[in-house]
Automatic annotation (TrEMBL):
<feature type="binding site">
    <location>
        <position position="167"/>
    </location>
    <ligand>
        <name>Fe cation 2</name>
    </ligand>
</feature>
<comment type="similarity">
    <text>Belongs to the fatty acid desaturase type 2 family.</text>
</comment>
<keyword id="KW-0560">Oxidoreductase</keyword>
<keyword id="KW-0275">Fatty acid biosynthesis</keyword>
<dbReference type="GO" id="GO:0006633">
    <property type="term" value="P:fatty acid biosynthetic process"/>
</dbReference>
<dbReference type="InterPro" id="IPR012348">
    <property type="entry name" value="RNR-like"/>
</dbReference>
<dbReference type="InterPro" id="IPR005803">
    <property type="entry name" value="FADS-2_CS"/>
</dbReference>
<keyword id="KW-0150">Chloroplast</keyword>
<keyword id="KW-0809">Transit peptide</keyword>
<keyword id="KW-0443">Lipid metabolism</keyword>
<keyword id="KW-0479">Metal-binding</keyword>
<comment type="function">
    <text>Introduction of a cis double bond between carbons of the acyl chain.</text>
</comment>
<dbReference type="InterPro" id="IPR009078">
    <property type="entry name" value="Ferritin-like_SF"/>
</dbReference>
<feature type="binding site">
    <location>
        <position position="164"/>
    </location>
    <ligand>
        <name>Fe cation 1</name>
    </ligand>
</feature>
<keyword id="KW-0934">Plastid</keyword>
<keyword id="KW-0276">Fatty acid metabolism</keyword>
<dbReference type="GO" id="GO:0046872">
    <property type="term" value="F:metal ion binding"/>
</dbReference>
Length: 288
């Protein structure tokens, strides 16, 4: 299968990099899953069909940005140009995922929504977590490859890890800024995203043979230390510290409840094994 991520972006054609395009184009990050199986024509009616992993369906919620929120993001244009665009590579020097993926319009592609609900708050929080997770997992894969003598694979994974690190830096800076200018809205979004769990649709992975490929894959990544439940918990603790969530003041009643919830998830506020580690167990491999 192939996974294609279309995150909320801060580049545009004619408007400034962080200005908001028309509302219809503000979309949640989406994952496109392509099956690598070629389904030939059915010759016999009772021929057993190849296994197709079930799609996880969420009740979709679409948020409308109120005028004051739209204005808030428009006011970030100059800040974004000075603080975010510095992390971008010239597009002509970058490989493009679509160059290596099947046509998204082809049969076998499925859109998967990570439940960011068309909200930039949820989208930037999701990608902050996801990019750090992929930085960790690709970095660990590079280390394993080097230890076992596959230098080319180590270089490839190392390059991807460094790209993911830059993405993480950009997204976490944006959320850090959102906490500065709208702490109440941002903490509510962070709590909402953590209740949903940060996951990617790797559970749909299928190689044409193993109906439980994702479970086996997760067990291997956990055992080898590529991406583990501890990594999931550590990422949350890192972001809570980076965004100074425990130090937020002036929150509404709902905001304080959200703050308590998020801070209560961090490993240092949990007993051995705590619920964040259990939550991480169900997400091991999702962000790989």
């Amino acid at each position: 299968m192939a996974l294609k991520l279309n995150p909320i972006t801060f580049q545009s054609r004619k408007y400034t990099p962080f200005s908001l395009p028309p509302m219809a184009s503000l979309r949640s990050p989406k994952f496109v899953v392509a099956s690598v199986l070629n389904s030939g024509p059915k010759e016999v009616e009772n021929v057993k069909k190849p296994f197709s992993p079930p799609l996880e369906v969420h009740v979709q919620v679409t948020h409308s940005m109120p005028p004051q929120k739209i204005e808030l993001f428009k006011n970030l244009e100059d800040w974004a140009e000075q603080n975010i665009l510095v992390h971008l590579k010239p597009v002509e020097k970058c490989w493009q995922p679509q160059d290596f993926l099947p046509d998204p319009a082809s049969e076998g592609f499925h859109d998967q929504d990570p439940r960011t609900e068309n909200s930039p708050y949820l989208g930037f929080i999701y990608t902050s977590f996801q990019e750090r997770a992929t930085f960790i997992s690709h970095g660990n894969t590079a280390r394993h490859a080097k230890e076992h003598g596959d230098i080319k694979l180590a270089q490839i994974c190392g390059t991807i890890a460094s790209d993911e690190k830059r993405h993480e830096t950009a997204y976490t800076k944006i959320v850090e800024k959102l906490f500065e200018i709208d702490p109440d809205g941002t903490i509510l979004a962070l709590a909402d995203m953590m209740k949903k769990k940060i996951s990617m649709p790797a559970h749909l992975m299928y190689d044409g043979r193993d109906n439980n490929l994702f479970e086996h894959f997760s067990a291997v990544t956990q055992r080898l230390g590529v991406y583990t439940a501890k990594d999931y918990a550590d990422i949350l603790e890192f972001l809570v510290g980076r965004w100074k969530v425990e130090e937020l003041t002036g929150l509404s009643g709902e905001g304080r409840k959200a703050q308590d919830y998020v801070c209560g998830l961090t490993p240092r506020n949990q007993t051995a094994g705590g619920k964040i580690a259990k939550q991480g167990q169900t997400n091991t491999g999702h962000a790989i």
